[in-house]
Amino acid sequence: MNASTSALDELLRTRRLIVCVGPGGVGKTTSSAAMALRAARMGRRALVLTIDPAKRLADALGLDGLDDEVRRVPGVEQLPPLLANVAVGSLDAAMLDTKASYDALLTRITDAVSRERIFGNRAYQAFSRTMARSHAYVAMERLLHAVEEGRWDLIVLDTPPTRSALDILDAPERLARFLDERVVQWFLRGQGGDAKGDDADDASEDGTRGIGGRAALKLLSVVVGAELVAELVGFFSVLAHLRQGFRERATRTSALLTSPSTAFVLTAAPMPSGLADAGNLLDGLIERRIPLSLLLFNRAFTTEPHAELGADERGTAFDVEPLHPPRDARHADLGPALDELLSRLSEVRRAAHAENQADLRRMRAFHALSPSGTPALMLPRATREIHDVRDLAELLAAPRPLDAGL
Questions:
Q1: CB atoms within 10 A of CB 306
Q2: pTM score, two decimals?
Q3: In what side-by-side order are the strands of the sheet with 71-72?
Q4: What are phi and psi of 91, to 5 degrees?
Q5: What is the DSSP pairing of strand 45-50 with strand 71-72?
Q6: How far apart are CA 173 and CA 144, in angstroms?
Q7: With contact defined as beta carbons under 8 Å apart, do 43 and 86 qualify?
Q8: I need a surface site. Which of 248, 298, 330, 338 has the fewest CB within 10 A?
């Protein structure tokens, strides 16, 4: 095991949940899967649950596809273990499917009669398939269920890019507040709902608020149709009936996200636009008092090509004084042409070195904005596509600490 992976490996060995956040287009989904794979090679039963998956991830994991059903990733047991005297564990993968996850949630928490009412409800079908924030909420429900199942030692959650990741963190409490909003309760009272609970005292003694609600619903029925209004009321009625359970699970989810057994990893890349998005996300985590456990800079530098390196090694970064390839005396007649080629190659190498140094300065400036003591690792730019779990295993084979430089 490479010493430079110690900060990451400590998380993979000791935490129960790792939440991976970051901008789009920085390889976050792939690095999330690589983390789960590395944990499996350390003997843990790992699950990577992806909410915003790269389409090629299933191929890299050797799967026909990914959906809400948990699937075992093949070939992991054939990889070498990373800890002495510890056998390779297992790796499972799943992709959030909003509709399937909502159906599974309601199957768990409702009786058969309520389930039949809501599954055929058009408002529910629209809510469970298309609304962005309903997607964020069920992602947290799906995560909580996976954690409380107890089947895995470690779950790595791959979140959507930047703003959507913050929506997911806020979603449980937001839905609980939504079900308590006066407009929802007023809406239900207008249909003759009991509106019992915390909001019961909002109704006036003479029932004028209920009368106003019924009048508003009649007007709405004229505009959109009585059938649709009835389905909308039915949808809200079921949700309101279940709101205490939603509150309780929101509390458990919040406790899970702030638990010492949970780690947040921010994946970024040194492009200026990507770092700006990552900065917004970092600010959001700090605002929510969520501690950051690791900064992972992907595609952080370009390495020298070395054909003789092993699978778990990485070439050095381009040097400030590039070495010319040796001139072959047998081809002296190519002197001018070879000199021109060497000159062009030197320019390419110097440009790669300059880019590496500029990226290093940007990463260090960003790291200075993060909470003091946050470890930061760099991964090189990939030289080939990821086609299987062996390629995926190489991704985290030899990261470099940011403070060590290139």
A1: 11
A2: 0.79
A3: 71-72, 90-95, 45-50, 154-158, 17-21, 262-268, 294-297, 376-378, 400-401
A4: -130, 125
A5: unpaired
A6: 14
A7: yes
A8: 330
